[in-house]
Amino acid sequence: MTEIKAVLVLGARPQFIKSAPVIKQILSEHKRIHLSLIHSGQHYDPEMSEFFFRELDIPSPSLNLQAGSGSHAVQTATIMKRLEAPLLKMKPDLVLVPGDTNTTLATSLTAVKLCIPVGHIEAGLRSGDMTMPEEINRKLTDHCGTLLFAPTQTAMSNLREERLDRVAHLTGDTMVDALQTVLPIVQKREDIVLQKLGLQQQDYVLVTLHRPSNVDNHDRLREIQLALSKIASRHTVVFPVHPRTHARLARLKNRGSGRRSNTILTSPKGYIETLSLLKNASCLLTDSGGMQKEAFLLHVPCVTLRQTTEWPETLVGRANRLVAKPKTIPGAVHEAASDETLRRRIKRLRSRFGDGHASSRIAKIIERTFGR
């Protein structure tokens, strides 16, 4: 039986989540595939990295490149330089990359220059906004790809328009697989998570912000902070603060975490706690791509602080609404959080993200392609 050597390179929280079901599927059901994990070190904070490996019950990577932070160019270049030698030594048949981070692009460029096939998990996403680093990363990665695993019909259409459908496969979304796996655990723990913060179901707004376009601009961050204060005058606000956002808020004299008026600031949460808070929120305010989708899958109204989204499927029925100007945030959040029927309407919408078997399809396609 021919062994297929595959290397999965990941480096950021969303990548850990969307990769976990693929890792488990390969290790448990596809013994022909010998899978090695490499951590780029893009997220080097233990709260944003190692904790997720333990919580998602996946093996720790055999190698950490310790790339750390830096500008997009510096981070991408560092990962490329540190990854080349391991790939030359390992001689994999396939390098797998999930998502759209600098790790995704750096790995794809390194592999393709070494003539190693690249498989892209979550291929074909497009926001249409080339000012977003993620848009550049995902487009270039797709054009480096040998196998493109598209999560939705929209993603397949995007790949078709770019003449990449020859190497594309509609698999569904691996985050659906992950969510189905952990939801029973979430249901057992959610009451404890809420009690710890003194929360009631659907009686608070959950906030997550980390995107540079929102938190790196001092004036814009002040406007967002003012908007959050206005939201807190009507709703309890729960805000797990991303390390990047924490550093920026510290400059605005908002150090630390704890309870302030009607706002609960906390440190970043693990996957189970985050899903528990999201599932029971009246509304999510975010700039995260993955959390827009998780909110949709959990039937939670969402307001996204961006001009565009790579997940247009979530916009159906106003399940998710895009807000570009901070001053319009409070009105949009209040409207979504106060609509007592919106959650039920979202629940009736047809899911466009697959049936929870994306990981199995991905593993079978890899075996079929490289097992000859």
Provide a descriptive summary of the structure in words.
- The chain is of the alpha/beta class and 372 residues long.
- It has two domains: 4-173 and 354-370, 3-Layer(aba) Sandwich (Rossmann fold); 183-348, Rossmann fold, CATH 3.40.50.
- It has helices at residues 13-29, 50-55, 72-90, 102-113, 133-144, 153-161, 174-197, 212-215, 218-232, 243-251, 271-279, 289-297, 329-338, 342-348, 358-370; strands spanning 4-10, 33-39, 63-64, 94-98, 118-121, 147-150, 168-170, 204-208, 236-240, 258-260, 263-266, 283-286, 302-304, 320-322.
- Strand 1 (4-10), helix 1 (13-29) and strand 2 form a beta-alpha-beta unit.
- The longest helix is centred in the middle third of the chain and has 24 residues, at 174-197.
- Residues 255-259 have low confidence and may be disordered.
Shape: globular
> How big is the Rg?
20 Å
Question: What is the overall number of helices?
Answer: 15
Order of helices and strands: EHEHEHEHEHEHEHEHHEHEEHEHEEHHH
The overall pLDDT, averaged over residues, is: 92
β-sheet strand percentage: 15-25%
Model regions low in confidence, pLDDT < 50 over at least 5 residues: 255-259
